[in-house]
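Hey L., structure's done. Input below.
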Amino acid sequence: MTRLGDGEPVTLDEPAGDGQARTVAATLALSLATRRPVEWRRAEAQEVPSRAASPGESPALQADVGSPTGRDSIGHGLDAGVASRPAVALAQAVATAVGARVDGQLATFEPMPVRPGRRTVTCPPGVSAVLVLESLMWPLALAQGTSELSVFGATHVARVPSFHDLALGLFPAAERLGVAGEVALQAAGFAPEGGGQLRARIYSAPKLQAADWTHRGVLREVRAYACVANLGIGIARPLAQRLSERLRSRGVAAQVEVLPMPATRGRGLCVVVAAEFERVRSVFTSVGEAGKPGGEVVDEAVAGLCRLLERRGALPPLLAEQLLVPAALAASRFGAPGALPASRERRPSRLSVSEVTWELLQVARAARALCEVEIQVQGLPGEEGLVEVRP
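Output:
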């Protein structure tokens, strides 16, 4: 069988945990940008470290992620198993969009060169349109031309980024990396029905820039939204009232709005809290699910902001996972395809995170292996951490 990507496949531990689809999306983006095939292998779960490292220690977790040539020797601390259906379907949707090849059990992914242009992607039921867009965003930015995407599918899915995380968080942050883009919500879609649509334009970036996100600066403003699609205003107003009360009780002054979302079919709700700091905007989104009370949706979004404010990390976990992909590409030989030779110097990036997650560690392993860069994650899962990415 003819291999589509460049060189021998990079072997990674099979993604695990609730954020499995997020990890797969990041890996697909890295594979497409580097044109390096990926093979996933079954990994044995190991015990999660229960304490932080003492000063002077070099935990296996940190050493594992920090070495660009060593083997991935530590497990995820979670039950590893067959890839979930959404993760497999996500890979298949991305492969179809760019002509890549993925097997039916998510054991291998073979990329093709990503070229700029117009694309329409229809996601299978239950697959996040946002994760499909994230998988294509960075490879398209490096493809030497403007691209336009229409992605049909679920735009708001629990435990994965939503449209609001992209529009309010990731896209503004991408500008610091030299990537300009626009994203719009044509129709909201909720799992499992889907029915949503995103439209995005990604402009060419001759070179990805390194960035330093170690300090977030002072909090300037907080905006919060009770978003509803095909639901009455009588449902949205109590959510907005609770949102205002919960934030005020935590000492956070916020502008709270009810925001109707366009939708062609299905219905749903989400709560969005966007915190504008001096150097970064952090977004916390909670999506309603069957059997989940609206008050719990509100409390979940507010709790995300409060956890960030209680710690020193500049980035919340989800945004750190997302930005680690372009940070690794910027430090690699793959991050400046259109730059003049004199400007192709590679620089390190630093990201401080309010909480190290297993998904962040899995993305770090994939980025280290595919981009051939050094990545060190200081901190254990559940704790504050610092991620350093070096050529």
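Residues 292 and 298 are 11 Å apart (CA to CA). The longest helix spans residues 233-249.

-- N.
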